[in-house]
Amino acid sequence: MGNLRSVQKAFEKFCSNVIVSSSANDILKADKIVLPGVGAFKVAMDELKKRGLIDPIKGSIEKGKPFLGICLGLQLLFSESEEGKKIKGLDIIKGKVKRFKEKDGLKIPHMGWNSIAAKSTPYHKGTGQVEQRAEILDGVKNGSYMYFVHSYYVAPEDKGVILCETDYGGNFTSGVRKDNVYGFQFHPEKSQTAGLKIIENFVNL
Length: 205
Known about the structure:
The chain is of the alpha+beta class. About 25% of the residues lie in helices and about 35% in strands.
């Protein structure tokens, strides 16, 4: 759902073998998987179920394949959404998808350019935890501006998965990482040099 061609073109700058597919077999054979999306959470989940893609997605993630969710693709990774009645997501990252509250003249949807503040993420090294900036943000300056279009945002239960935050009437999570799973609320394919650097980094994982 959404402009798949713009995502495909962005990835083709760094990878010669990019396939847009709704085939479970293609997903299972892929080295890396990208789930982009724009639109309604329920409609997207219904499409994934109808096309038999949920098990291949979850199976690929469990095998350790790098996975990237973009915009709605990020939100689908979460347990449930407030959009309409509570709708179950893929439940790969525990947490909810919430709607921005209309307050203080805040325009909804959040649309246009806004900056990201990168966070260090903890990982286990021996007996202690070490803070590390995720490699998918290598070469992306803190405070870089990215392109957003959304009315809902993700609220992870585990704050340790947060890669970056953005201020829109208060901070919200604009990027996550859980093991081999990454997700961004903004559109890296529409975010010029900084966004393309994220795509390049994902290709090179």
